[in-house]
Amino acid sequence: xxxxxxxxxxxxxxQDQFDTRRLADRLEEHLVxxxxxxxxxxxxxxxxxxxxxxxxxxxxxxxxxxxxxRGYVRVVDDHTIAFPIYDGNGMxxxxxxAVVNPQVGLLFIDxxxxxxxRLNGLARITPEDELLGAYPEAQFVVRVTVTQIFPNCPRYIxxxxxxxxxxxxxxxxxxxxxxxxxxxxxxCDSLPAHDPARPDRTExxx
Length: 206
Fold this sequence. Notes:
Order of helices and strands: HHHHEEEEHEEE
Strand order of the largest sheet: 2-1-5-6-7-4-3
Number of strands: 7
Low-confidence stretches: none
Mean pLDDT: 94
Distance between the termini: 46 Å
């Protein structure tokens, strides 16, 4: 991977201003890869959350927090990861962006061990992905082909301790509670016809 492809003119301008071009080139040479290493696979699959950056067709950015059960992000192979999209607020800002602009950035952080990993790639959504059945209540699966993956300096990560898992993460054989906001009269009558929060709900299509 060439330095000029990894760094753009804006990065280079600041590197030269603060005399970090040599360091930046060295870091890129030794750390940035286009395939997932075994230790990175273990790190990714040991987490239960990440941050997802996307942009629409005009470049308008969006950043989202994604979470599930531990290990819900799967490393399919050394070039590909996959994760589910569960029921949300129906806006589909991140997934919608990925439909029109596949370039995405993912930030994986372990706040207890104070480690982080960055992954850039190209996202795609396949309606009948073979992994869909492995995720209870998932609406669809997103696959990301890795273009760049690299560890990040952890020194500014605040150390947090895990207190409780979210009860809303779908789990096989465990009823998923309905979030309270769905009963708010401002939008409860605009929920999808098959949403469990609707008293007049219909069965989802088979």
